[in-house]
Specification:
By secondary structure, this protein is α+β, with helices and mostly antiparallel strands. The strands form two sheets. Strands 2-3-1-6-7 form a five-stranded mixed β-sheet, sandwiched between helices. Strands 4-5 form a two-stranded antiparallel sheet. A hairpin with a 2-residue loop joins strand 2 and strand 3. The longest helix is centred in the N-terminal third of the chain and has 65 residues. The radius of gyration is 32 Å and the shape is globular. The termini are far apart.
């Protein structure tokens, strides 16, 4: 075979390889463009889902006011409720119509879930109407709480719907992930904020103190709100330097956390002591609901920014795709001309370069790329291959760093940012595993729930920085006294919880006493170099037949409440 013929064959093979690479590049860019094109409608569907969930939440306020109305105000509150219901129905219908027009989402079951919510609204609203039409003195706490729960119970379905829509947005454009997480956190924050007011409504209507279940549920909502506030601050770190986002976050802190949240906390304190709240559900809605608007303003600001960014990237991806196609065509023509011009000079170097390219494609990054003999195109190709090798090595290094970062983020998501302990979610995850082991092998398992006494007074007297120092000191002291197998977590606010495997009730009480004595005898250094002492109240419960983790925690919480009532700085045992 002649050298020219051999070269032509090699040139043809290289041309085919180049075309394959070019087609692959074009295909990749086309896929990126298609994903970007899908991100805009996916964002619109996500927005419709958030609006529908928001309307469901907003409807609870006039529903609560209607259930708490008298004969004189019933008609007016009913008209307001009908307007809210119409807005909810319209938002759900618009969301369902948009999803039905998208075959992929129609097949995913999202439409059925929205339909489930629409169907569940009928009996839930009927329960609200039945309570409102009863005489005021016949509205029992059970019926009101059941009606409130009926409206709240539809929210988890909508959360799953918006979660799936958010996943579709994330798959379409991963660069929107930070903003997407911020939007979901803001939406959840608004929902949990509304649920606290709804949980107070039955006791306000029947003018009775909060029961232990309501206190526990409100405490859980407080913990979730606190966690979401921290998550929002972390997500908005990527928007640093943009004043509109800083203003929106500041407005939310001032309007909701400094005004609305404090008002709810006041009502909670009243509900713990008596049923004399001094406000009606309609007055609560009139004063509290407007304060939550700042949360939705922040959510909408993030959504609008994501929409703008998605549209811009879609345009950029389209332009880049056209550029890649044009450059690919030009490169193919130039390749043919180049083969004709360097037939004798680059035959052997080109074969070597081909072997090197194939090696890089196969992942042989340890092979040495030689320098070109001449300062020409072949030399440039060798330099380009060296750069390509460096880029591949850099990409592999970045992939490892990303995996390490993901691991770090997973760890931080299970850790309380202030004390370094496990957070509530991680505690429940680990606790369920330990509960399964204990029940399967009939082993002892106990829970100790404790709360720093008069913590609000410490914050009010010495400031929140001092309160944070106390929380860290309590966490450090408790950690030093527990076994390695024991699990200590921050349960929320100034509450901590300990899971004690292989410990019966007597052993758990002894641990609680040891913790109580250690905390009561320690001087805690606070901001400014001052030293103060604190005490804590403890509730202890142990595993028995038929009890799950939540029942165990509820018993410990009841015992903790008894310890508070009996004078604090003591240990009580749950039955």
């Amino acid at each position: 075979m002649s050298l020219n013929r051999l070269f032509r064959l090699i040139s043809f093979a290289l041309l085919m390889l180049f075309l394959a690479l070019a087609v692959s590049l074009v295909w990749i860019e086309w896929s990126i463009y298609q994903s970007g094109a899908n991100s805009v409608p996916a964002l619109k569907h996500f927005r419709l889902g958030l609006i529908a969930m928001e309307r469901l939440s907003i409807e609870r306020a006039p529903a609560n006011a209607y259930m708490g109305s008298t004969a004189d105000t019933r008609d007016r509150f009913y008209q307001e409720l009908q307007a809210a219901r119409a807005a909810t129905d319209s938002a759900l219908a618009e969301l369902r119509s948009a999803l039905e027009k998208d075959p992929a989402k129609n097949r995913s079951g999202l439409v059925e879930r929205v339909g489930t919510v629409q169907q569940a609204l009928v009996p839930a609203r009927a329960a609200v109407d039945r309570v409102a039409l009863q005489p005021v003195n016949q509205r029992t706490h059970l019926y009101v709480a059941s009606a409130v729960s009926g409206m709240v119970d539809m929210i988890p379905v909508m959360v799953r719907v918006t979660g799936e829509l958010a996943n579709i947005v994330d798959q379409s454009d991963p660069d929107l992930r930070d903003g997407l997480a911020g939007v979901r956190a803001a939406a959840s924050l608004r929902e949990y904020a509304g649920q606290i007011a709804s949980r107070l409504t039955p006791s306000m209507i029947t003018r009775r103190p909060l029961d232990s279940d309501e206190v526990i549920e409100i405490g859980r909502l407080y913990g979730r709100i606190d966690l979401l506030r921290s998550l929002l601050s972390a997500q908005l770190a990527s928007y640093a330097g943009r004043p509109e986002f800083e203003r929106a976050l500041d407005d939310m802190d001032k309007q909701y956390f400094d005004n609305g949240f404090q008002f709810l906390d006041y009502l909670l304190q009243v509900g713990l002591k008596s049923g004399d709240y001094g406000v009606t559900p309609s007055e609560l809605a009139g004063r509290y609901v407007p304060e939550m608007k700042s949360i939705l303003d922040l959510r909408d600001l993030l959504l609008n920014d994501m929409m703008v960014r998605a549209e811009q990237r879609n345009v950029q991806a389209r332009n880049f795709l056209v550029t890649v196609i044009g450059l690919t065509i030009i490169a193919c023509l130039f390749f043919q001309l180049l083969m004709y011009m360097i037939r004798k000079r680059v035959v052997r170097p080109l074969v070597d370069a081909t072997d090197l390219v194939v090696g890089l494609v196969d992942g042989k990054l340890d092979q040495e790329i030689p320098k070109g003999r001449y300062d020409d195109e072949i030399g440039g190709m060798m330099r380009a291959l060296r750069v390509l090798k460096e880029r591949i090595l850099e990409r592999n290094s970045l992939a490892k760093e990303r995996e390490a970062l993901i691991t770090q983020l997973q760890t931080s998501s299970n850790t309380d940012f202030l004390t370094g302990l496990l957070n509530r979610r991680a505690f429940f995850s680990y606790g369920q595993q330990q509960m399964g082991v204990a029940q399967r092998y009939e082993r002892a398992l106990s829970v100790v729930l404790f709360d720093i006494d008069h913590f609000k007074r410490i914050n009010d007297t010495y400031g929140h920085l001092s309160g944070d120092a106390i929380l860290r000191g309590v966490a450090q002291t408790a950690s030093q006294l527990l076994r390695k197998v024991d699990v200590l977590a921050r349960y929320g606010g100034e509450e901590f919880i300990v899971l004690l495997p292989e410990s019966d009730l007597a052993q758990a009480r002894a641990v609680a006493e040891k913790l109580r004595e250690a905390l009561a005898s320690r001087d805690f250094e606070i901001d400014g170099g001052q030293h103060i002492r604190v005490s804590a109240s403890f509730g202890v419960a142990t595993l028995a037949e038929g009890r799950g983790l939540e029942q165990l925690i509820k018993l410990a919480d009841t015992a903790l409440y008894v310890a508070k009532e009996q004078g604090r700085n003591r240990v009580e045992v749950g039955d």
